[in-house]
Amino acid sequence: MRIAIVADSFPPLKNSAAVLVSSLVEALAGLGHHVLVIIPFSEGEKSCLKEDFETYQLLRIRCGKIKSHHKWMRGISELSLFFTLAREYKKSPYAFDNWDLIIWYSPSIFLGGLVRYLKNRSTNSYLILRDIVPEWMVDIGLMKKGPSYYLLKWFEQYQYRLADFIGVQSPGNQKYIEKLKLPNLKKLEVLPNWMPSTSTSYPSLGSNSSHANLEHTILCGKKVLIYAGNLGEAQGIENFAKTLLDLRDHDDCGFLIIGRGSKKEWLQEFIDSQRLKNALLLDEVDLKTLDMYYRQCYGGLVFLDADHRTHNIPGKFVSYLEAGLPVAACVNPGNDLVDIITNENLGLVVDDPDIFSKKLIGFVSNLNDATDYSPRVRSFYEKHYRPDVIARQIINAITVQ
User: Model's pTM, two decimal places?
Assistant: First the structure.
């Protein structure tokens, strides 16, 4: 099968979307499909850059810098993707190729221009929908229902109308799409987040190694909980900061924070101003280094803003399970994570940030090490979140109707 995949993130970016898209590409290629990945890039003089990898091909199309922390600059650059990607793709060597399947990953919600062009020469289209934009922005107070909201709403609805198939990340989001009554939609399904297996790919951290070794940091000797992922508005970082402060005097517990985002600088300033000795904040790292950190931790942390009305199964949650770590999550009421973590006994989940710290203290105290949960959480990952499982689900969706 000839498959074109469109996304706005791909390695060398280290964010979760880049990891998810690249691992899905490799899984689809591993099933014998011919895969082309189309992504924007911001550097270089050529408008298009073609790269041939052993198992797939990559087409980078030059656009503006879409990962800026400045909201207005990022918004304008992302909006330009709607026009730029399609215009430049038409000049590429693939302009007249035919495709059996188009897959695109949202967010961004501005890939519809290129998807529309590709649909003219394709059979099926599958939208992988991770976040409901702009609804979550309204929920947490980032946006009001004014002109900007309705502009984003148009792009959101446009991409839904292009999709023959839509995969949402949780049952809760399925209900949102069902209410839209999209006339061209052939199938709506839950397509969970996924994560490549790294815990079995790399050697253990040597005791004398200084690279990624927490014994050489302020977290030495503590039961470390790791937060790996975006530090933005949607994550409820203020609640995270409250937890750090509440547990500042519990010497046995430490927090390793790895990531990027609009609230990262604020969180670092909070840690510094409160002179917290239980938290270490680091920049994004590659998967190999992240796996080394995971091996030294007792559990993984998830925070989501309490005002969310849509559902979110973060990639970080899946990566913790893959690493064999139990999860401690503070999420919005009604989030599907509550039932998943509770029913499968994957760790601690609370939908009230005011009591999360108290629950977390008891949770950490009862952890001897991650092996208390490892077999169970690894088994749940293997069954639901491996990239090859997701790749087969997408292929089955379009072939079994």
Answer: 0.84
